[in-house]
Amino acid sequence: MPTAGQAKGASARSKRADAVRNQQTLLDAAAEVFVASGVDAPIREIAARAGVGLGTLYRHFPTRADLVTAVYRHQIEACAEAGPGLLAGAASPFDALRQWIDLFVDFLVTKHGLADALQSDTDRFASLHTHFLDRLMPVCGQLLDAAVDAGEARAGIQPYELMRGIGNLCIGRDSDPRYDPRRMIALLLEGLRRPHSPGGDG
Amino acid sequence: MPTAGQAKGASARSKRADAVRNQQTLLDAAAEVFVASGVDAPIREIAARAGVGLGTLYRHFPTRADLVTAVYRHQIEACAEAGPGLLAGAASPFDALRQWIDLFVDFLVTKHGLADALQSDTDRFASLHTHFLDRLMPVCGQLLDAAVDAGEARAGIQPYELMRGIGNLCIGRDSDPRYDPRRMIALLLEGLRRPHSPGGDG
Amino acid sequence: MPTAGQAKGASARSKRADAVRNQQTLLDAAAEVFVASGVDAPIREIAARAGVGLGTLYRHFPTRADLVTAVYRHQIEACAEAGPGLLAGAASPFDALRQWIDLFVDFLVTKHGLADALQSDTDRFASLHTHFLDRLMPVCGQLLDAAVDAGEARAGIQPYELMRGIGNLCIGRDSDPRYDPRRMIALLLEGLRRPHSPGGDG
Amino acid sequence: MPTAGQAKGASARSKRADAVRNQQTLLDAAAEVFVASGVDAPIREIAARAGVGLGTLYRHFPTRADLVTAVYRHQIEACAEAGPGLLAGAASPFDALRQWIDLFVDFLVTKHGLADALQSDTDRFASLHTHFLDRLMPVCGQLLDAAVDAGEARAGIQPYELMRGIGNLCIGRDSDPRYDPRRMIALLLEGLRRPHSPGGDG
DNA sequence: GATGAATGAGGGTTCATTCAT
DNA sequence: GATGAATGAACCCTCATTCAT
């Protein structure tokens, strides 16, 4: 039995509980719609699927990027947090990098249209872009540096371009079964691993 | 004043001349607009720039993809035709492949938004997609096979996925100066190249 | 006199104290917002500035007009109360009228968008309209009558139309520096002062 | 059977005839809607009343101001063109001014909400504003100058402020039968008129 | 054949107002 | 009483595509 103070706390919390539940409903709905129609799906569709009004969606997620970011925040976090552990546990720094990129690719490839959104030059996804890079680029950079330091990867490649290249390779995975991003990514990593033209490029 | 017969013939011929001229005007206009606003530019804009009606544009190019294809047909042709020559003239099959991919990348990277269009999963660009593959995939395949046969490239990579990977890497080149597709493509090719010393590939 | 009732009364009173404080907060906030964004500013903005919930605002001021009225009640009062004093103290009844209209114009011109609101034909400002007229029209009428009785103003002009005319002239003062309502109002008053067409109009 | 030239001309003209008819339909519909719901009425409503698509309306009148301007263009023209004639035909320059303002007021008062629109500080009506002033201010200025030169009107009043004052006085005519803009405008003009007997103004 | 006017679906966004907590 | 989340009507605007002339 709550005291008055607790009651107040409870009521304050219960209100928020509603909103939180709603927010979760929205996230779930958005996730489903993103899978079905891509991250560019009409806002209305998401609100409808969530069974809430348009305004509610706008209240919780003022821009589309906010919604996308929120939907994938957990996975971005997980990806970011996995980095150090991999570095510690893998057979070699390059292996850690490879495993991390596996995670990254899993993530991108699972989410319909997410890789596309990350490339969109419009500012509709600006904040998503920002969040992505802010969170993941340092992790990628650390792994890449370690591999370079260990002599396993060629120097001179920036984490930004690597992430973006990987991201690009993941675009449009659904459209044709003949295209499996992972195979191309494997090639890219192989190229990264190789010492720069071991004597016989020309 | 033409006679009836002459008039008919003349008018038919003159119309065709008109049509041809119109088509060329449209291609030129489209090329300009594509550069300025990407291959996704509003149809009207192209018609307006060409100084013809919308219907005329639609008559000549029923879908956007038809227009894009037509605009770049010459370059696609050139790219396709260059293949055999490179194979004959290059230091090695792999080198020929590399040079050909250079041409391909030049092409994609020059055309604002073309690489993006090639990935678009909508059917808006379906015929472009088709034409691209029909024409270039055999060429790429020939070069790739030669490199594999020569022991310079690892086997098991399909021309489709290679072309698509390259294409993907070219996406969004304009959006950030930190990203240069060619660097990633170089990595990919390095990964594709078979190591000189057998057994070292692991 | 209730005992148990005292407790109840006390709690009622404490709540009322809260409510009163809230009401004042809202009035202050509204005044600021009105200045910044006009009397048509979004309701939320006012609630937000006051740091109270939307419902609270609605409870205190069910319509926008109620809020506007309340915000400017003091000044309406002051304007109303100034009338008799001016009549007593001015050099002539017409001078008193002129001075009173000066006050009135000061008031309208200071409040961003208030003059506009007074004209709005929608019913959004109905109660404001009512309050304004109920309170000020008699005052204006008294001054006007006095000027007419003194032979200083032409007869036949109703206080309503005079106030409304003045109000109208104050609309949109901010939009163009070339327009100074007072100059036109001076003309209007000059016209009011003149005997009707001194000999040669008709 | 028309000749080729005629046919071409006819067909070109007939096409335009259609568009022109449509444009007229739109103007008529807009005029009706403006009367019924004011010049701020939803765009859709006008399109619907005209029985055309939204896009058609937008094609003909890209902004709301364009539509309003077009709807009232004839009357603006008539008003502008009447100026010189009045000056020539009236008993005195001031009389000409008075008559012209009568026309102006007739115009404003007839059009529901037009006077309001002219004050709107938003840019939604910017081009209307511009057109109004460009066309009418010179005319008003000419009449005013003439009256001043004839010693009938006091100097120092700008046509802009006069027109705007008149316009303001016309606002909201519909809302209350007690308010007749013309009575206030008459007062204003009386105030503008220079007293006959010099020295009596003082 | 060419034209471009017309169509209207489609998507974004704002805000007054209600009502469960 | 206070709160502010939810609602959804109401607007605006763009463009691909069709079709009468």
How does this structure look, described?
4 copies of one chain form a homotetramer. Chain A is mainly α and 202 residues long. Chain A folds into 2 domains: 1-62, Orthogonal Bundle (Arc Repressor Mutant, subunit A), CATH 1.10.10; 64-202, Tetracycline Repressor, domain 2 (Orthogonal Bundle), CATH 1.10.357. Chain A has 9 helices and no strands. In chain A, helix 1 packs across helix 2 and helix 4 packs antiparallel against helix 5 (93-110). The longest helix of chain A has 34 residues, at 4-37. The first copy, chain A, is elongated and about 55 Å long. Chain A starts with a helix and ends in a 9-residue tail after the last helix. In chain A, 36% of the residues are buried. Chain A binds a DNA duplex (21 and 21 nucleotides) through helix 1 and helix 3.
